[in-house]
Specification:
CATH topology of the largest domain: Jelly Rolls
Oligomer: single chain
Order of helices and strands: HHEEEEEEEEEEEHEE
Largest sheet: 8 strands, antiparallel
CATH superfamily of the largest domain: Exo-inulinase, domain 1
CATH class of the largest domain: Mainly Beta
CATH architecture of the largest domain: Sandwich
Helix content: 10-25%
Number of domains: 2
Strand content: 25-35%
Low-confidence stretches: 1-9, 26-44, 247-254
Structural class: alpha+beta
Number of helices: 3
Distance between the termini: 94 Å
Mean pLDDT: 85
Length: 254
């Protein structure tokens, strides 16, 4: 029994061209859709933010109550490194309402902080600005209270439920300030939400050391400060977005 093989005629050249064009079109669509990932969304987000650190230089920074950058603050492996000695590091610009994002890590037994809405006075930076506390929670577990632990609004509002990376690894943090409202975020979780001047705030301040400092948390705008507090600390990916003003005219100027 013989089998008859059926031979198909070759596709016309025009059909091959159309097929190639359709294939190219679908590849392009697939590529575009694939690029709409969380990473891409993050990139779009960064366009709304102003970078405060270029990963290479100390442009945009100076020492607290100084015109230059203290020798104790350097750039190392794409991060600002504080040796823990000498003055705090302060942004040249001042900000009112803002959304600040940054990554940070500590050395073992480390202690530092990010202080905001700071103005330069006779006292240290934390006399005028609230502080996002950074500390080795595990090393000091038996010595610190929630109000002094990582992520706390130092001395006033504690952060108990949180997720921390091991010492020596980077954490992500966020500070959002709108008028008198303050939020602290740590590794994607909001851990502090409070309001300057509220009954609860005033009660906490009255019971703390801050009641001695009349200018504490009274600025509607001020500088961002990276604290020098006796041990190495690293900061990177520092960026800020100005939010629409919700208070009176800023009391500090860039």
């Amino acid at each position: 029994m013989h089998r008859h093989l059926m031979h198909r005629a070759p596709l016309p050249r025009l059909s091959l061209i159309n097929f190639a064009l359709h294939l190219a079109f679908f590849c392009l669509v697939y590529f575009c859709l694939g690029s709409m990932s969380p990473t891409s969304a993050f990139a779009d987000e960064t366009e709304e933010f102003e970078s405060l650190f270029d990963g290479k230089t100390m442009t945009g920074w100076r020492g607290y109550k100084r015109d230059d950058v203290p020798a104790s603050w350097t750039v190392h492996d794409g991060a600002i490194r504080g040796a823990g000695k000498g003055p705090d590091l302060m942004s040249h610009k001042a900000f009112g309402d803002f959304d600040l994002r940054f990554e940070w890590k500590l050395a073992k037994s480390g202690n530092s902080g990010v202080i905001y809405r700071v103005t330069e006075t006779d006292g240290p930076s934390h006399h005028t600005g609230p502080e996002f506390q950074l500390i080795d929670d595990q090393e000091f577990a038996d010595k610190i209270r929630p109000t002094n632990s990582t992520g706390a609004l130092y001395g006033l509002y504690g952060a108990t439920e949180k997720t921390l990376q091991p010492i020596g690894e980077y954490n992500t943090s966020r500070i959002v300030v709108r008028g008198n409202r303050i939020e602290h975020w740590l590794n994607g979780e909001k851990i502090v939400d409070c309001e300057i001047g509220s009954e609860d705030w005033n009660k906490k301040v009255a019971a703390s050391k801050f009641h001695k400092w009349k200018g504490f948390a009274q600025n509607s705008a001020g500088h961002i400060v990276l604290q020098s507090h006796g041990s190495p600390v690293w900061f990177r990916e520092i960026r800020i977005k100005k939010l629409p003003a919700s208070t009176a005219e800023a009391s500090a100027t860039p």
